[in-house]
Amino acid sequence: MKINKVLIANRGEIARRVLRTLHKLGIKSVAVYSDADRSVPHVLEADESVYLGGSPSSESYLRQDAIIEACLALGVDAVHPGYGFLSENAGFARKLKAAGITLIGPSPESMEIMGDKLSAKQAVKNFGVPLVPGLDEAVANVQAGKQIASEIGYPVLIKASAGGGGKGMRLVEREADFEEQMQTAQSEARSSFGNDAVFIEKFVTKPRHIEIQVFADQHGNAVYLFERECSIQRRHQKVIEEAPSAVVTPELRRRMGEAAVKVCKACDYTGAGTVEFLLDANLDFYFLEMNTRLQVEHPVTEEITKTDLVEWQIRVAQGEKLPKTQEELEIHGHAIEVRVYAEDTLNGFLPDIGTLKRYRVPSGRSVRVDDAFVEGMEVPIYYDPMIAKLVVWGKTREDAIRRCLEAIDDYQISGVKTTLDFGKFVLKHEAFISGNFDTNFVKHYFSDPSVVNTAMEEEFRALTFGIEQVWEDIKAFRAKEFASREISSSWKNKLQS
User: Fold this and answer.
1) Confidence at residue 370, expressed as pLDDT on a 0 to 100 scale
2) What is the domain class of 5-104 according to CATH?
3) pTM here?
4) What are the pLDDT digits (tens) for 291-304?
5) Which terminus of the chain is more exposed, N or C, with fewer CB under 10 A?
6) Domain spanning 208-451, CATH architecture
7) Mean pLDDT score, 463-492
8) Is 360 an annotated catalytic residue?
9) How far apart are CA 107 and CA 302, in angstroms?
10) Residues 293, 315, 339, 368: which is the catalytic one?
11) Would you kindly state where each structural domain of the chain is located, as residue ranges?
12) Residue 184 in 3-state DSSP?
């Protein structure tokens, strides 16, 4: 089936990202928007646009029937859901199918299996994918949970079966805290996902968050496009990603990749997906979950594999075979992504909503900025506060770090606080440079504001010193030029006399 027109059921930078590929392929595009997004770039760049409703996502981007009505009215062949919103909603996928509209994504059955962490564990266990020690079924009784935790051994993680993003997740380091933490996890899971089911697993000390990009077509082919290191996080959410990882060896990469492909087989998967693993200090890996969509950090994979993953998604949705086999895929260089959030990094990464009084992005052959803002726009309070993704490629990891630091220096944003200062702090930190870090980076190195402030003050002093030196040089040059003019003038007077 040839796709001729696509509605993008999303907003912001991912909507613009999908638009770029649609334009490249000559496919007509339809954008959707809310009150807050009436004049944003993705609406202006699409061939057509549809108003969905009020600014809150529940009144606009989550209105499934309104989106489907727009598809039918405009002759849309397929929907690209991006990430977030309806991207992993099996009910929405079924409605699209019933309306004769193709979802550029996996089947609703695959979404359901992998959308619940417990059912995902059950599915992959039969394929020999390694799991974190723990309970593979929901537990509701506190006493039963306490018994399981005692058998596994503290510390343990209590995790919500549904959802993600760190919601409904609690670390328990001693038995005395278990009851309170389990009740808190259940309450948070209930309010966030409408499902208070939780399970318990062993907490892996010094864990690294490594994910594998996978792709599968409708002909039984599946490949992995190598790994992404996603261990730099705040509130269990990623802030800096890189590909490949500094610690994954070729042999480990192969084993993790093959395990990720087995996860695809376990749920009869098609399209783009990401299999997330925990990697411990001994480089043993354990299955965490599968995200049945394109990831925020997909650009670093595109940069090192020289691919367009959105194009792959569209081709697979049209029934084509994967563009490349596993043997044809190679790693080229190194890529780093810094998420630029409108957040106050020194105040617990709290959102800092406001107007972008100045907004200038870095550029260059090795620099890519995926964003959705222009100068003068307001960062709305209704959605995720991400302004942009700064992606930099280098021939080596050291080269990529250097280029990324230069790009951060070239970024100009005023009006809101951003995570660019945090990105610079991380990239210059010895733990990151050496590759010796894990998901506790923020806890270990960024939790004390005085330490961070000192580091930033030192950098400011160095910058100030540099400016002062330039000013002294200018004054010295001017004094020398003035003296030269005085000498010339005195000689001129003598000659005239």
Assistant:
1) 98
2) alpha beta
3) 0.85
4) 999 999 999 999 99
5) C
6) 2-Layer Sandwich (3.30)
7) 51
8) no
9) 24
10) 293
11) 5-104, 133-202, 208-451, 452-497
12) helix
